[in-house]
Amino acid sequence: MAKKEKKLEMGGQAVIEGVMMRSPSGYSIAVRRRDKSIKIKSVPYLPLAKRIKLLGIPFLRGVVTLFEMLVVGFKGLDFSANEWEEPEEAKKDKPGKEEQTSPPPDQIPETETEEEPKEKKQVSPLAMTGVLLFSVGMVLVFTVVLPNFLTWLLGHLPLFKGGAAESGGTGLVESRSPLLYNLIAGVFRALILLAYIWLISLMKDIRRIFEYHGAEHKVVFAFEDKKPLTLESVRPYTTHHPRCGTTFLGVVILVSIVVFAFVAKLISIVYPPFLEMSLLPRKGIIIALHIAFMPLVAGVSYEVIKYGSRNLKNPLIRLLVLPGLLTQYITTREPDDEQLEVSIASLKAAMAIDANMEKPTITVIAPNESS
User: Fold this and answer.
1) Longest CA pairwise span in the chain (Å)
2) Residue 242: domain span
3) Among candidates 332, 51, 122, which has minimal Cα distance to 213?
4) Residue 99 in this model has a pLDDT that exceeds 80
């Protein structure tokens, strides 16, 4: 029996007026500039899980991959912001080599143009580290601390028999009712994320990014179906993809309910006096353990998404990814042809990155060549 061909999974994200795509050999960032040309930066990059075998084991690889996605994502946003915000007149006045116009997206060569000019403004590693730490901190506040606090407040309502356990009643205490507590906290977590996503979707600039997000999904679908990467081929596809980061968030919420319920129960079994501790120390320990177990939640969720993308006919998998797919009605929008062209150019450039390529390259597609 012939060996089944391994499916090549492409991924990406929307950036400011553009799309970033990742391939096994690197990633490319394509941005539609104000003069309607498309500028593409192609960067050779070998994932850590491929460089260090230990980091490629199941569950651990999910955490490593997510961290890399954050770092590469910020670099993509930095590049796209520079290209979109900088006036064309300023670019023309800069010293150095002129940018070379490339062939249309369907004719992108394996070796593009010269290396990116050195004078380009970039975010420093220290600043990027600060932004990453702040972003991770905010995620933990909104997905761990705030849902826990709101659930604790809910436990003080008359709805719960006898009031809070601290007042002699049964109340809603995670250590005693871990499944119910985390189910409610999970609902709060989902509502907080949905409210945040919906609010930012009302902003014009964010809506544009969501349109590029839809363009990314359409092109990835066409690629996975081995269709020609043309406007005619990619237009009919849906903007909702099961491997999207939005779907990942939905799975994280569901997995966290199970994992956090187990953590709370484990504490009460291993250390029974934990039930008699006062409120603040007890909640502090629980929240700290939730944060500590977030990598496990992320790792399990990554494996679920990875398995689920290949087994979408499984009813349980379809149920797990359903919340994320529904949320994509907010996080994706129908793109126009110009946005699809950018996404197509980005994917083709990513696939054209040679494994022996050592330095980033820049390609520019003129306005009249991108259709």
Assistant:
1) 76
2) 11-369
3) 332
4) no
